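Consider the following assembly input.
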Amino acid sequence: SYELTQPSSVSVSPGQTARITCSGDVLAKKYARWFQQKPGQAPVLVIYKDSERPSGIPERFSGSSSGTTVTLTISGAQVEDEADYYCYSAADNNQVFGGGTKLTVL
Amino acid sequence: EVQLVESGGGLVQPGGSLRLSCAASGFTFSSYSMNWVRQAPGKGLEWVSYISSSSSTIYYADSVKGRFTISRDNAKNSLYLQMNSLRAEDTAVYYCARDSTLKRWGQGTLVTVSS
């Protein structure tokens, strides 16, 4: 099995850029996805294939990849973006989520 | 509209069993692989199991291997998770999620393992 490592928390002021990283050896050969989860709700896919944005996700959400690290960037973070964010990747029969990052926007 | 509705959660004693169901609608269920993902109270997401559209390929997380069994009935548009030998650490909200993209999720069903 493998692991994905995220910071436990990130804090920004409204309008600033939030960056959340996710690191793991598997990311050098497999795509990552990012999920947003607000309290009491199911996760929502916000980025797939490292940098693709599903329809309906605001353009301020973007993703990038470099080596064994992927980054979720929220440009001009808004109060409603405050949530937990999880990276995810799958390789063969191993599928794993990162530990999650609590994004605070205030 | 794509809908996934989990059911079957509840309180069970350690060592007991429970069967979760996920009813799918709004898409051709038989064409999609499915997953179970869980989240312990106040904790992060944990992938549990995967089943291909035809049930020919099945994977489990090491934490549940040998105790949980995933299955599906394409005629009934339903996904199942049979959970045996339950432990306190299996307490979680269990979500079903569609295919390898995990783009569609149900709202989850709570399983509590406690005496």
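The mean pLDDT of chain A is 95. Ask yourself how this observation constrains the way the partners meet.
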